[in-house]
Amino acid sequence: MGWFKRKTEGITTSTKDKKETPEGLWYKCPKCQTVVTTEDHAKNSYVCDRCSFHERIGSEEYFQLLFDDGKYRELDKRLSSADPLKFEDTKKYTDRVKETQSKTGLVDAIRTAYGKIDGQDIVIAAMDFKFIGGSLGSVMGEKIARAIDKAIKMKAPFMIISKSGGARMMEAGLSLMQMAKVSAKLNLLSEAKLPYISFLTDPTTGGVTASFAMLGDINISEPDALIAFAGPRVVKETIGRDLPAGFQRSEFVLEHGFLDYIVERTRLKEELSKSIKLFMN
Asked: Which residue segments constitute the domains of the chain, with CATH numbers given?
């Protein structure tokens, strides 16, 4: 027999004064499971203070991190994709672009801007993976080309922050042409004796890796970033054997001579400033 018996049915407990925990208040590191406030995580440049896991961030976060006082001028803001091939798979390409623009607030998978790093002029092109996987299309190629022209005009160094799944299949051959277009523009930058800094982040794959991401006067990367042409699963299935530990991660790529150095995001601005001084002086 129970010690207590409810005499009145339907009794409810008031939740009027219950305090709700706001969504997004905490960040849990997917690698080491450490929990911190989202505010502290943002202050540490979205890097886990315990295990140094680098969360993926977008162009705006990189601009705020690198440009002095977070101030910059954006180039070609409204340049948007057309649909010359009238492409349609599960949905029309035009509908996919409009839907992604509405969802992300971005116009395409890259933003370009100029400003200063420690008082030194620089032009930066930064990709956004959340816009159709940071895919390389006609708009990305054109915006990078125009940003290089701006760097030459300003006599300033140029930097690309790569974060891409590769060429945009909805633009077929037109997307592949951007690899050659950007590479040719980078040659003009070289002829003007201006440095090109390539910064590879997680992930940098496909046609971007196969072209301009690896053409930097210096190629640098964040820790543990996936840098590849084909992904590890595809490579494993193709060659039919197990891959080495850390295969295609930035540390592996550095060890095999394709990177100059790896830098923690919290030290990125400092290291870039040194590189710019080295090249420009």
From this structure: 24-55 (no CATH), 56-280 (3.90.226.10)
CA distance 137 to 139: 6
Of 140-144, 234-238, 273-277, the least confident: 234-238
Q: Can you name the residues that pair with 78 across neighbouring β-strands? A: none
Q: Residue 232: which H helix or E strand, with range? A: helix 232-239
Tokens (6 digits) for 159 = 């930097």
Order across the sheet with 110-117: list the strands: 72-75, 110-117, 120-127, 158-164, 196-204, 218-221, 261-262
Q: Give the C-alpha distances (Å, rounded to integers) separating 177 from 136, 155, 172, 180, 211.
A: 10, 27, 9, 6, 11
- The answer to whether 106 touches 131, Cβ cutoff 8 Å, is yes
d(CA 223, CA 226): 9
> Which residue type is seen at 54?
H
Are 210 and 230 in contact by the 8 Å Cβ rule? The answer is no
Confidence tier at 232 by pLDDT (50, 70, 90):
confident
Contacts of 141 (CB under 8 A, 6+ apart): 175, 177, 178, 179, 181, 182
Q: What whole-number distance in Å separates Cα of residue 190 and Cα of residue 110?
A: 22
The strand pair at 218-221 and 261-262 is best described as parallel
Rg over CA atoms, the chain: 23
Question: What's the predicted TM-score (pTM) here?
Answer: 0.89
CA atoms within 13 A on the CB side of 28: 3
Bond before 203 cis per omega within 30 degrees: yes
